[in-house]
Amino acid sequence: MAKAKRAPSEILPIGATHFPAKGNADPQPLPAGITIRSKRSVQIEFMWQGRRSTESLPGAPDVEAVARAVTKRQSVVDEIALGVFDYARHFPNSRKVRRAEERQARAEAATSCTMGELLEEWLQRYALDNPHNRNTLDTHKEVVASRLAPSLGFLAPKDITVDKYVQYRASLRAEGLSDSRISNILTPLRGALSMAVERGLIASSPAHSSAPTKQRRSKKVELNDRGEPSFSEPLPTTLDPAYQHAAKSADPLNDSERASVLAKLVGQVRNLFLFAFWSGLRTGELIALRWCDVSADRKRILVRLSYSKRHFTTTKGRRARWVDLTPPAVAALNAQWALTGDAGRWVFNNPRTRQRWQNSQRLRVHWIRALEAAGVRYRKPYQTRHTYASLMVSAGESPEWVAEQMGHLDGRLVAHVYGRWMAPGKAVPGQAAAAVYQQEWAAAEGLVARVDEVELAEVGEREVEAGGPEEDDEEDF
């Protein structure tokens, strides 16, 4: 026999506050803490841990369901008063129970997971996402191994507070590190903290909350008689702050220093540094220069590769560029063609091994010995690039043309970094230097090395090979 359906009048409507009236009796209000919110459940309300909590009991909201809800609520209230209430036992399917379990799991994970583990996982993720940035990956690995892991690796993510992050950043600045070096150190740390946020180990990254902010303040501006604003101080420039570091790093060699250093070099090494002085290539770009990137008349080269830390990479900014060569650079190339043009694809080879230079460290040894022999103050080999730029702008070449030759986006950096050497006036791009350095360029033919010579003694070469890790001679511009 089929079960009889409930009469519609027995089901309480949503939002009902009273039971249905029976006969002539007045309708009775629903018990305290009972609410009809759905056609399929009855909601009870109680105070738990100082906060209002609600739970729905399944079942059509009729008189019997309300009676069961009253009994359930009273049991919950009594257990809360006695301090023995177990939320999961009474409401195992409640969202509050699931959230509490998730919070507990995150708390346990935050205690067991260390920053060292997160840093290693971040390195693995970076390697997968950036398979071609080997040099940057090596830098991140070095930073994690030498700095972050020893000082912060044993801590849990929750222990890295905003104050601790700010203190660590301040300690790096107190060491006198440059802004770029500090940024390199903090990048893996910020990445690991972001991973901790993704996994719910911490609510937010202290790195995002500790960024120093600068408040912009408006300044009073006076108007002249014509209603035009007059400023008491120059307007701020829009140059990148990194340009300030670049300007301080530029320390080019003067004419006598340049001549003295080249006179102490021999063979292919002299040709390489003569070419570097008059082409503006970075050290890694010199090592990676191939004959297939040299024009047929050897007056232009296509710079599209660099070599650093035993890896070939694209040039900085990933922009290939054509460089118009000056006569000394052309003379160096012509001399190199007789030495390496038939030997292989690399323009400059190590004179001892007859193979491509394996790193910039060996070039640095030749450079340092030449500086010492010439009595010239020490600079990095990268200063040959600064020397080229200062020579060009002092001759009157436009910053835009020099920037194009050096691989920069525009002439702003050139004007800012090399402005103290800049000559007034305008000239045809690439022609101003010819008038200024005509005599020196004419003498370049007699300066190049047409015979391959080896400067280092055998014991000296072994010392270089047994030396420490290769230093990165490249700069950020």
TrEMBL record:
Domain Tyr recombinase, chain residue ranges per copy: 234-438
Xref: CDD domains: INT_ICEBs1_C_like
Domain annotation Core-binding (CB): ranges: 113-197
GO molecular function, one term: DNA binding
Signal peptide range in chain numbering: none
Positions of transmembrane segments: none
Pfam assignment, any one: Arm-DNA-bind_2
Secreted listed as a keyword: no
Coiled-coil blocks: none
InterPro entries, per the entry: CB, DNA_brk_join_enz, Integrase-like_cat_sf, Integrase_catalytic, Integrase_recombinase_N, Min27-like_integrase_DNA_bind, Phage_Integrase
GO biological process: DNA integration; DNA recombination
Region (Disordered): 204-237
Keywords: DNA integration, DNA recombination, DNA-binding
Family according to the record: Belongs to the 'phage' integrase family.
Protein name in UniProt: Tyrosine-type recombinase/integrase
Biological classification of the source: Bacteria, Pseudomonadati, Pseudomonadota, Betaproteobacteria, Burkholderiales
